[in-house]
Amino acid sequence: MKSLLASIAIATAAFALPHAASAQTYPDRSITIVVPFSAGGPTDTVTRLVAEAMSKDLGQQIIVENVGGAGGTLGAKQVADAEPDGYKLLLYHIGMATTATLYRNLPFKTLDAFEYVGLVTDVPMTILARKDMEAADFAGLVEYAKANADKVTVANAGIGAASHLCGMLFMSAIGTPLVTVPYKGTGPAMTDLLGGQVDIMCDQTTNTTKHIQAGTVKAYAVTTPARLDVLPDVPTTREAGIDGMEFGIWHGLYAPKGTPAEVTERLSKALQVALKDPNVVARFAELGTAPSSEADATPAALKAKLESEIARWKPVIEAAGQYAD
């Protein structure tokens, strides 16, 4: 019996050693961060800045892979199904919370499919219109939209995209359904807004600031409690007389369920270092946002945020009745 127990102990130790070593030496090769949207969009921009800074701290290259489609759920599913070893991660925005209600047949259980690394940033939203929009200010835009509800078009980058969520919240806040025009990505939606083919769009400052500063679109409001330094002439929605529209598009970093705690903690520490990188801080400021604090760039903070945001957006989505299969 003693001999049998000894054999089992040796076999168990031999099996455990590689796993213990992998956690202790992580990472020993390149890491991939999946962005569940097309290249060049606001989430892609955030990810590439953070990935470059994290790679310095981790000592390994971080590859950014764009896996777009189905409002971000295809890329999320790919990571949910990946080996839980810390070498394939997901950087997803607020859509991680909203898809739980938006999609009737979501291919993963949001709260059960991932481990949490930390919050990355909370990007403000801007309410824009075509350059030649008749309304002079936000109150005028609301008045115009209500008077022409059957023909005013609101562009978005697809079901579940940040622009789609903001558009729904805008229509909810003014109590008027408008004509929604979904696109396959932020790029084509913005192109048509710039060309005057659509009337209104609500999107992240990381995508809109350069257009606002260039004067190629008309900016009406930002969704922050205070005005942004990068857009000082654009009023807040509350200043403009609309309550209930103060929100941002937060981004979080995730790993597949079952990833060792030591690995997620190491990634969280690298994220905290990256978010203090001078280049990241400066570039985020240029884009109208700021890195998450060290306290927020943690597994516990991201988990709490996701749970609270699922609860917040569920009634908004259900009231709008805009679902995806």
From TrEMBL:
Q: Which residues form the signal peptide?
A: 1-23
* Superkingdom in the source lineage: Bacteria
InterPro entries the UniProt entry points to: BUG, Bug_dom1
Q: Which Pfam families match?
A: TctC
Q: Which UniProt keywords apply?
A: Signal
TM segments?
A: none
Family the UniProt entry places it in = Belongs to the UPF0065 (bug) family.
Instruction: Write down what this protein is called.
Output: Tripartite tricarboxylate transporter substrate-binding protein
Species of the source = Mesorhizobium marinum
